[in-house]
Amino acid sequence: MLNTKMMSQELVKRLKQLMNTELPKPKKKRKPLAEAEGLAKELPDFMQGHKELLGVHIGGCIVSGEWDDKTMGSAHAHCNGYGKGYICCKSMKQFEKDTTMKHELAHILTGKGHVLGWAKCYVDLLNGDHKWLTVPWLKNKYGFKTRKKKTD
Ligand SMILES: [Zn+2]
Ligand SMILES: [Zn+2]
User: Fold this and answer.
1) What is the pLDDT of residues 49-60, one digit of tens each?
2) Does domain 34-142 have CATH number 1.20.1050?
3) How far is the centre of ligand 2, averaged over its atoms, from the C-alpha of 16 (Å)?
4) Helices (H), strands (E): how many in the chain?
């Protein structure tokens, strides 16, 4: 009788050891972002060869799976957190628009919101197209606010 408590403690300890060694560890792996992968081949040239860009997700947000017009705009880029490296588009319409994709790609490449570094990257990607779309024009439009969570 005097050993019952000790024995049960020992048993619990051994059970814990067994559980730690023999039970598979819970998988921390995120769900595969496969929906966007098939599309990688169809990405336009300007979107190729960027290791930061993992893919473009069309028809919804890769993180939420849905589309909220109020918070998501027509397209956005995930610069951090789950979904990092992905651009989400509401529909093919946004994907087919170079200015929109370059805007979002610049977010992915710089990892930044609407700041000066992003604007310079965006204008570089435009590579002479849309001459009206300059860094000062972007500065006027976005004011280069640095504290912005969601980028669109
Ligand atoms: Zn998204
Ligand atoms: Zn943006």
Assistant:
1) 898 998 888 888
2) no
3) 50
4) 6, 3
Residue 85 corresponds to which tokens in the numbers above? 């490296």
Tell me the ligand closest to 88's alpha carbon. 1
β-pair partners for 108 = none
Tokens of 24: 């598979």
How many CA within 13 A on the CB side of residue 11?
6
CA 106/CA 151 separation, integer angstroms: 11
What strand order describes the sheet that includes 86-89?
55-58, 86-89, 75-77
Judged by its nearest atom, the ligand closest to the C-alpha of residue 63 is 1
- Kindly report the pTM of this predicted structure: 0.69
**Would you give the DSSP letter of residue 83?**
T
Q: How far is the CA of 40 from the centre of ligand 1 (A)?
A: 16
